[in-house]
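Exercise 7.
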Amino acid sequence: MDELMNSAKIAVHNCMGVKKGENVLVITDEPLRQIGQALWKAAKEIAGEAMLLEIIPRSTNGEEPPPVVADFMKRFDVILIPTSRSMTHTKARRDACSSGARIATLPGITEDSMKRTLSADYDKIAERSQQLMKIASGKNTARLKTPSGTDISMSIKGRIWNTDTGLYHKPGTYGNLPAGEIFLAPLEGTANGIIMVDGAMAGVGLVKKPIKLLVRDGYVTEITGDSSARVLEKAIEPFGKPARNIAELGIGTNDKARITGSVLEDEKVLGTVHMAIGDNKSMGGEVSVQSHLDGILLKPTLEIDGEIIMQDGTLKI
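Solution. The predicted structure, written as tokens, is:
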């Protein structure tokens, strides 16, 4: 517990920069109750007021919390959300940020991941992420390939890269803990090709056999593979076509993260690229749906406007 508390204190003090007199809310659910309690204990040592709120687990990543909780979130300076399903891409999170809250979501985080990854040098991760973002910004097209068969192109024209550095000190900022990525929403309707998810997939975990996603005009038209592919198909089925939108292109920048089957950590792994389907409203896109699922791609080669940013999983910066 000492190691977990130490990580909770890093989250509260270093990552969120909680100051004396600020109001902090920790939202958790039963599977992550112990982590929620650790963050609350760390917060109450310094905050003006610290509250711990447990909700019933949501059924999908991106499902909204109860309306009364969404309204309550607007009243806090800092919110930490260790829940079994992600609240990152929800209207509740966006509205709370618009009201000035600094928010870190920790969907599905394990105690092992928290102890290991929150000890990373987030100043160095921030520097790496900012440097990568400068190189990738203001460009028009991206093409992604992997040894397992991914080959997909998309327009990124006019879309802004976001950084998830793990340092959320300004009102309205948000991201994950553990952090370490840059990401954007590709232009809707422009992605074409094949994605082979060979690392891990949100809602599935580690994949034994790659999940093949056939993409036409910005949407996944076909999902094939083993039982993992059927699990993914079933997860997005209730949400219709918007859940098949190519929502995100992201690059991991955390050197302490490793592939574990928990996408929260997996998508941050240095040397990986991830692509998500579903909601992209939170990152400057036009599609709003209560589903956002990331797939991790191994040993990627990423070209942006013809320049190789990453070659076989090695950053070229």
